[in-house]
Automatic annotation (TrEMBL):
Keyword Hydrolase attached: yes
KW Cytoplasm (keyword) present: no
GO biological process: carbohydrate catabolic process
Family in the record: Belongs to the glycosyl hydrolase 1 family.
Keywords on record: Glycosidase, Hydrolase
Lineage: Bacteria, Bacillati, Bacillota, Erysipelotrichia, Erysipelotrichales
UniProt source species: Holdemania massiliensis
Protein name: Family 1 glycosylhydrolase
One of the record's GO cellular component terms: cytosol
GO MF assignments: beta-glucosidase activity
InterPro entries linked to this entry: GH (IPR017853), GH_1_N_CS (IPR033132), Glyco_hydro_1 (IPR001360)
SUPFAM superfamilies, A to Z: (Trans)glycosidases (SSF51445)
Record PANTHER family: GLYCOSYL HYDROLASE, LP05116P
Length: 471
């Protein structure tokens, strides 16, 4: 694998591919959700920006923008459409074509096996809480490793376990839309740890030159005060949001403190099997993908039931409501608010220092493990001019402020090896459809050809990459 610093951008299958039932693809839980009456907006990823038919243009634009890596995900239900486990060769063909296009431009693929979109047949059996999911995932993962082998130098098992579990079983805005179900939240989290370990076990059997990692969403917990109570809230925030996935993935063990605290919260941990310990211990990751969006700001738990909002406002709701995103976990911690830090229209703090603090903490705890910043992005209500051009100065400011913090951590010895803007082009936002834009390239959804127009940030990023060739 090339040792040069990787500069790129990222997407995920359901959010960009479209072609939801083309060429033998089976439905995913997101297809099922978006086609059901639970989807109150009626907005779906059925077509989205139709990467399935535009991948050549999109990858060419990455290359022209100076990018040398592309993070994307494989749709599990394109490869294994049904519960009978028969492999859909046409699914492989699509991703073979995508890889060929990347190779044409020397773009290094960084490929995630599952980015939220479980096959619907997995969802029907209990999804992330199904006791068979780790073996089912390992079966699919093994098929992918065998097919692509070293052609994919960087594999990622799961995208954002904690965030995904929280959206599915705490906030309830991702299928199966369960609100504040701590039992299922913990079960889901544990099963994700097992999915990661069992997929890595399959990967190691093949002795590939490629590396395998996991992508994590949350930054380290921080607090506005350093009293013993606040420091305890920080420790609890980290245990709940970071340690339960990073410790097993990197160190091969679930922290005993976490297990004790979860038990004390009344969770039945009978889903944890004694024989799983060795699987977790023997199958750790080669690199960490760390996403960079917002700060995890906590304060001591004060009162009230566990809930996934702050002050009963929304969570990830847009339209300028700017209700702070956060949660209360009874007996553990509560989200805090900092009046001095701006929020974006969806209630996320804009606080670039969080990624510096996180990278330093990751190094203190996990040493020199290679780290890729696998997503860093600014959601906005973009406004285009008549030519479809977006002068997205807010996005440029956001990304450059985060990059300053990332490069500072790298200069201080954190083993950062690459960086990906979220997202390559505009795509479907899970809860906010097509209003919330992240792309470096605008997609005109009103145009039958889904016209792509590079934004100001695309050109800014190209220049930034050019200016940092010495990394
Ligand atoms: C990340 C996900 O957590 O956040 C992406 O990996 C997602 O898939 C991104 O699109 C932005 O999320 P949202 O909810 O702001 O669209």
């Amino acid at each position: 694998m090339t040792e040069k610093f990787l500069w790129g951008s990222a997407t995920a299958a359901y959010q960009c591919e479209g072609a939801w039932d083309a060429d033998g693809k089976g439905p995913s839980i997101w297809d099922e959700f978006c086609h059901s009456e639970k989807n109150t907006t009626g907005i779906t990823g059925d077509v989205s920006c139709d990467f399935f038919h535009h991948y050549q243009e999109d990858i060419r634009m990455m290359a022209e923008g100076g990018q040398n890596t592309y993070r994307f995900s494989i749709s599990w239900s394109r490869i294994v459409p049904k519960a009978d486990r028969v492999i859909n060769e046409q699914g492989f063909e699509f991703y073979d074509n995508v890889l060929t296009e990347c190779e044409k431009y020397g773009i290094v693929p960084n490929v995630t096996l599952v980015h939220y979109d479980l096959p619907d047949y997995v969802g029907a059996q209990g999804g992330w809480c199904w006791e068979g999911i780790a073996d089912e995932f390992a079966y699919y993962a093994a098929a992918v490793f065998r097919h692509f082998g070293d052609r994919i130098p960087l594999y990622v098992t799961i995208n954002e376990p904690t965030h995904n579990a929280s959206c599915c079983y705490m906030v309830g805005n991702y299928p199966p839309n369960e609100k504040v179900n701590m039992q299922h939240f913990c079960h889901c989290a544990y099963n994700m740890v097992m999915c990661n370990a069992k997929a890595i076990r399959e990967f190691r059997k093949l002795h590939l030159k490629s590396q395998i990692g996991l992508v994590h969403a949350s930054c380290s917990a921080e607090a506005l005060k350093a009293t013993p109570e606040y420091l305890e809230a920080v420790e609890n925030g980290d245990l709940f949001t970071n340690d339960w996935v990073l410790d097993p993935a990197i160190k091969g063990e679930i922290p005993q403190k976490l297990i004790d605290k979860v038990k004390a919260s009344g969770i039945d941990l009978s889903f944890m099997k004694a024989e799983d310990r060795a699987v977790i211990a023997e199958n750790t990751i080669d690199f960490l993908g760390q996403n960079a969006y917002s700060r995890l700001l906590v304060k001591p738990y004060h009162s009230g039931e566990t809930c996934a909002t702050v002050n009963n406002a929304g969570n990830n709701d847009g339209s300028g409501k700017a209700a702070k995103e956060g949660k209360t976990v009874k007996g553990w911690f509560e989200s805090d608010t900092d009046p001095d830090v701006p929020l974006n229209p969806w209630g996320r703090e804009i606080y670039p220092q969080c990624i510096y603090n996180t990278l330093i903490k990751r190094k203190q705890k996990y040493g020199d493990i290679p780290i890729y910043i696998t997503e860093n992005g600014h959601g906005a209500y973009d406004v285009a001019d008549e030519q479809g051009y977006v002068a997205d100065d807010g996005r440029i400011e956001f990304l450059s402020n985060f990059l300053e913090q990332i490069l500072k951590a790298k200069a201080e010895g954190v083993n950062v090896k690459g960086y990906y803007v979220w997202s390559t082009m505009d795509l479907y936002s899970w809860i906010n459809g097509y209003k919330k834009r992240y792309g470096l390239v605008r997609v005109d959804y009103d145009d039958p050809d889904l016209k792509r127009t590079p934004k100001k940030s695309y050109f800014w990023y190209k220049q930034f990459i050019e200016d940092h060739q010495d990394l």
